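@channel anyone free to eyeball this complex?
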Amino acid sequence: AQTVTQSQPEMSVQEAETVTLSCTYDTSESNYYLFWYKQPPSRQMILVIRQEAYKQQNATENRFSVNFQKAAKSFSLKISDSQLGDTAMYFCAFMTVQGAQKLVFGQGTRLTINP
Amino acid sequence: DAGVIQSPRHEVTEMGQEVTLRCKPISGHNSLFWYRQTMMRGLELLIYFNNNVPIDDSGMPEDRFSAKMPNASFSTLKIQPSEPRDSAVYFCASSFGGTQETQYFGPGTRLLVL
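replying in thread with the prediction:
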């Protein structure tokens, strides 16, 4: 069974700083997808970024980028020039290519951006 | 474009009552997912449908839970009878293509069973 671990329950940084959220996962699959979702206080789950395991290039979306280390089974999220609106819970998630279309989520990291 | 729509947004009910949660997926999406979020267990998949057919319901907690998808634009999750331990946020998500495409989530239904 796949597992996803987020080792940082909470993080706090000042506005405009760069912050990196950690995620590791465990799987025997060779092809899969990884995601970061954001959950602000409204509780809406919002997709931040997606990475296909077969792609060596790290995904980027504006101020958000990932550091995907397949051999180490690590998938960290970097937020550059952090903004107050980035305050949220961030969830790392895993999904296999074969079999069930099931997102397996980590426990989440609560990120606070301070003014 | 309208996203995934869920109703109600909040539900408070008493133990033993029937609860029905509703979901309208994004138009054109053919996979639909029900997740539950609790403090203790985090986010977990309850059931998912592909082309209106239930594919994996292994996450459904017990027989008190049932889900249906009578057509491509509507799904329900029913709890009968409800219990206090069912209190959680229930999310519906949809995706397109029947492959491992990105799942887009609705705003969730916050359920409180007294």
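from a first look: The first strand of chain B starts at residue 5 and ends at 7.
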